[in-house]
Specification:
A hairpin with a 2-residue loop joins strand 4 and strand 5. The chain is mainly beta. It is about 10% helix and about 65% strand. It is elongated. An 8-stranded antiparallel β-barrel has the order 1-2-3-5-6-7-8-9. The protein has 1 helix and 9 strands; from the N terminus they run H-E-E-E-E-E-E-E-E-E.
Length: about 190
């Protein structure tokens, strides 16, 4: 595993454990708290393009969301790569990553929820091969699980299809998937 991912995940875990000492998060005994939350995620972007090996830049993202009920939230995200991905001499950077989602949640208990995302996601790509720079937006979707730590904190693990498109004037299709883990803080 990439040393940067381990370092970033350790830092996020330390922040989450510190935040867990705060006021109640989510289910407070009298009912579910809705409201605004902030979060950070780290992980890998799995970039697959026809004719090339998989490239896996390490990414870092920030998010802000508004939860309306135990079942529905909206969320915006921005991020970038911490390190680029390479395969067989080809290199890619995700200079900017962004997405807006509707988030449907299914609480299994006050401590664990599953969720699905649907919306628009995109990235500003820089490549070291033809069609060097592009900015692509597409339908984006994903699934994940969130685990309440107590206090105002939760952690999550998620897979999402960020974007897909065509490179080099439509000649080569690609897809970009994210595999991330992160932490949320309820305000």
């Amino acid at each position: 595993m990439n040393k940067k991912v381990v370092l970033i995940s350790t830092a996020i875990g330390a922040l989450a454990s510190t935040a867990a000492m705060a006021a109640p998060y989510g289910y407070n005994g009298a009912g579910y708290d809705s409201g605004t939350y902030l979060g950070a995620s780290a992980g890998q972007l799995q970039y697959n393009e026809e004719g090339l090996g998989q490239m896996t830049p390490t990414i870092l993202m920030l998010r802000i969301g508004q939860q309306f009920s135990p079942y529905l939230a909206i969320e915006g995200r921005v991020g970038t790569n911490v390190s680029g991905g390479s395969a067989y001499g080809y290199h890619i950077n995700a200079q900017a990553i962004y997405a807006g989602y509707v988030k449907g949640m299914l609480p299994f208990s006050p401590w664990v929820s599953g969720y699905a995302l649907a919306g628009l996601g995109g990235a500003a790509w820089h490549r070291n091969y033809p069609d060097y720079d592009s900015n692509d937006i597409a339908l984006s979707f994903g699934v994940g699980a969130e685990f309440n730590l107590g206090g105002n904190a939760s952690v999550n693990v998620e897979w999402a299809r960020l974007t897909s498109g065509n490179n080099d004037h439509g000649a080569y299709g690609y897809s970009a998937n994210e595999l991330t883990f992160g932490v949320n803080w309820r305000l």
